[in-house]
Structure prediction request, 355 residues.
Amino acid sequence: MTRGTRDSGTVEQARSTQSEPLRRHRYFKAAVIVSVAVIMGALFAVTYSIALGRPVPRHIPAALVSPDRPDPAIISALQQATNGALDFRAYASFDAARAAIDKRQVYAALILAPGRAATVLIASAAGFSVARVLEQAVQRAESQLGRPLDIQDVRPLPRSDPQGLVPFYVTIAATFVGFVTIFQLRANVGDLSMREWLFAVGALAVLIGIALTVVSGPVLGALRGPIDQLWGAFAMQSAVAALFASTMLVIIAQWAIVPTWLLFIVLGNTSSGGAVAPPLLPPLLAWLNRFAPSGATVTLVHDAAYFPHAAHLQPLVVDACWLVGTLAALIVAVRVTHRLPTGKPVPAHTMINSP
Prediction:
């Protein structure tokens, strides 16, 4: 064997020895990524199956109108049919109970009047899933009592959205467009400054808000409500998703998809109240419905489309807090880490105010 052959063999052996740890490192990273993806998928399936696939009545505010002593048999039958979930609150008259439904203070009302069949008022526009549960409860109560109960849908859903799901679906679209666009910007436009990045987020929010409002409203006729309110809700949702994803990119870089997926998809969608109303959600998700951005956006869109004269301030405040909070968090993260959402370092002489 010649010296050249021996040297060549030694070099090849050295390269093989050096490449083995690199190969193992690649395999390890691939295994971690696949494992995280499997866990995220499993969490998605679990939360959606429990919260959306098996809704259970837990706490349903309801009005009770009874000039005389309430009929305990009817109330007991309805409570048994809903697993004791009805939270009856006394109201003086039919009109007062109806106004409470219109203001979304209660989901239903039981009207007990002397000489008349008991009447259950429901409002499918307030929550189709709750209305369906109450319809089934009335049927079971009738069987138990051996007499009919009258049921009236005083706030029905329009034909364009017979199950009240359009606000939920459009909110999902705003969410996906928000954070997916951010990941695409990082992958394909890596030379943006901080100011340009924020401009892109703002332009995305404005344009997707307009697009979703026009498509779901004038084009499809699925959502009819004040255009400015619908646009504002969709724009804020998209902006919050984009700013949150941007902040995570600064803090944990390529793993930003994990907290973004958990907040907006696993927890956000299930707790939003769009597919299953809050009275039927598990306690944790029902609580998140009040404070998560997706829940606030679905409520804003729902109110604008179906209860335009009874809109609540809380979801607007929640969305505004998320918008300001995620923007502030992004700026602070960039200043602390000296790294942009693109993954590149902030120029020392420019920082946040880079052109």
